[in-house]
Amino acid sequence: MASSAEQKEKTILFISFFAGLLFAVLEFIFAILTGSQSVLMDSLYDASELVFIVFILFLTPLFHKPISEKRPYGFFQVESIVITVKNFMMLSVTAGVSAQVIGSALSGGNPVNGLYISFFQLSLGLLSVIVLFIMNRYNKALSSPTVSAEILGWRIDVCYSLGLSCAFFISLFLEKTPLKAIAPYFDQIVAVAIIILTLPEIIRMLISSIGEIFLFSPDEHTMNTIKEICQSNMPRWGFEPVFFDITKTGRRIWASVYFISADNMLSITELKSATDEISCLISKKLEGCSLELIASPSENFPIEQEIKKEGDNA
After folding, report:
1. Sign of dihedral through CA atoms 140, 143, 148, 150?
2. How many whole angstroms from its chain centre is CA 22?
3. pLDDT in tens, 11-60
4. Which of 173, 175, 225, 269 has a CA positioned 20 to 30 A from the CA of residue 150?
C-alpha cells in the first residue's frame, strides 16, 4: 500500500500534469489562431514538461522503496536519466523554434495582435496563481525535490505570463512612437528573450543530470554544506575528516566521510552518535542525504595508501 507521502506527491503531480496539459492545448490553439511565436514557444515548453511529469508519475512509487544489496542506489539514478532525456528534448525544441523565429524575422517580421496576447497571458497568469495555491496546500509537510521543482516551475510560469502580458500591452504604444518600425518584430523579440532566459537553465540541468548518471560530485554549494557541517562538528568526538566521497543520484545524496581519530581509539557508540547527530544537522539543510562515517588508518585516503603499498611490494 502506498504511503501518505507518496499519495500526496502523486496528487500534486497529477494536478500539475492536467493543469499543464490544459495550458499547453490552450496556448497551442491560441498560437495557431494568432500566429504568435512567443505563445507557441511557451506551448512547446509546457508540452515538454508534461512528458517529464508522466515519467515521474510512473517512477514515484520506486523512489519510496528502500535501497537493497541488489540496488545500492535504489531507483534514484533513473530519475537522473529521465531529466537528461527531458533536457535533450527541450534543447531540440528550442533549436527548432529558434530556426523558425530567425526565418520569420528575416522575412519581414510577424505582426500580431498585442492586445489579444496581453489578455490571454493575463488569464493564464491568474489561472497559474490558482494552480500554485492548490499545489502549495497539498505540499504542506511534504518533502520531495520533484514536487519542489514543479512548484518552482509554476511560480516561474506566473511571473512569465504576467510579465508577457505587460510586455505586449506596452507594445501597443510602440506604433504611436518613433519605435513603430520594430512593432512587426516584437513577437520575435519576446520569443528570443524566452530562449535566452531559459537556455542557460536547461543546459545547467542537463550537465547536472549527466553528472549524476556517472556518479560525479554534486554542485559546489552541496559539497561545501556537507564539508562545513562535518568539519565543525566531528572534532567534538575526536574525529578529523580527511576525505569526502560525495555523489548525487536523482533526489538522493550519498556522503562517505573518511576520518582519523585523535587518540587512535574508536568507540562504536560514539561513532553511531556522531553519525546520527551530523546526519540530522545535514538533513535540516539538504533533503535526502545518506551519511556514512568511515575510519581511515591514516591521513592519506585509504585507496591511495593501498596503491602505494602495492607499488612498494612490486
Report:
1. negative
2. 23
3. 888 888 899 899 989 988 988 888 776 677 778 777 877 877 887 777 77
4. 225
How do residues 190-229 score in pLDDT, each as one tens digit? 667 767 777 787 788 788 778 777 777 788 888 999 999 9
Asked whether 125 and 161 are in contact (CB, 8 A), the reply is yes
pTM of this structure: 0.60
207-233 b/e (C-beta count within 10 Å ≥ 16 → b): ebbbbbeeeeebeeebbebbeebbeeb
Query: In whole angstroms, what is the distance from residue 145 CA to residue 149 CA?
Result: 6
Measure the CA–CA gap between 55 and 65, rounded to whole angstroms. 17
Long-range contacts of 19-26 (CB under 8 A, 24+ apart): 19/127, 19/131, 20/46, 20/49, 20/50, 20/53, 21/50, 23/124, 23/127, 23/128, 23/157, 24/50, 26/124
10 Å CB burial of residue 300 (0-12, 13-18, 19+) is middle
CB proximity list for 121: less than 8 A, separation 6 or greater? 39, 161, 162, 164, 165, 168
Measured N-to-C along each axis, helices 145-171 and 186-213 cross at an angle, to the nearest 10 degrees, of 170
Between the alpha carbon of residue 272 and those of residues 29, 142, 268, 275, 277, the distances in Å are 60, 27, 6, 5, 9
What SS3 state is found at 183? helix
Nearest to 174 by CA among 161, 192, 186: 186
CB atoms within 10 A of CB 55: 17
Q: Which DSSP letter does residue 188 get?
A: H
Q: CB–CB of 165/129 below 8 Å?
A: no
* Residues whose CB falls within 8 Å of the CB of residue 7, separated by 6 or more in sequence, listed in order: none
**Which amino acid belongs to residue 286?**
L
